[in-house]
Amino acid sequence: MEVSDSVTSTLTKHLTNKVLAAHKPAIAEEKEKLDERVQTIIQNATQVYKGYVDDLRNTDNAWIETVAMHFHDETREILGDIEFEVDEGAPCVNWQEVSGHINLDASHSFILHKVAELRDANF
């Protein structure tokens, strides 16, 4: 994320790149439809957490801060059929089942717990 970028523009850029890279649309019409779907899911996103996260890279002089957004597509009509391209070493975009049984870092578990609360679901 660049300093001048908003969370929305960064999400749009990142999510669109992951979706397009996985689908490699052959024609501009397909790309436009995918762009519209990405915009729809981002416009309906909910900010779940913003702030400091516990991370092994944190030091006394530098630390990680994050913004966690929740995208919910319960009917799978917007992006439910989309597979994301996974890059080693790059931020990962994927669908995640909310469950207390997933082995995650403490900060990720905290964020998914907040999503479960938001959706009035068990965790």
TrEMBL record:
Top-level enzyme category: hydrolase
Swiss-Prot/TrEMBL keywords: Hydrolase, Receptor
Entry GO MF terms: ADP-ribose diphosphatase activity
Entry's EC annotation: 3.6.1.13
InterPro entries in the cross-refs: NUDT9
The protein's name: Transient receptor putative cation channel sub M member 2
Lineage of source species: Eukaryota, Metazoa, Cnidaria, Anthozoa, Hexacorallia
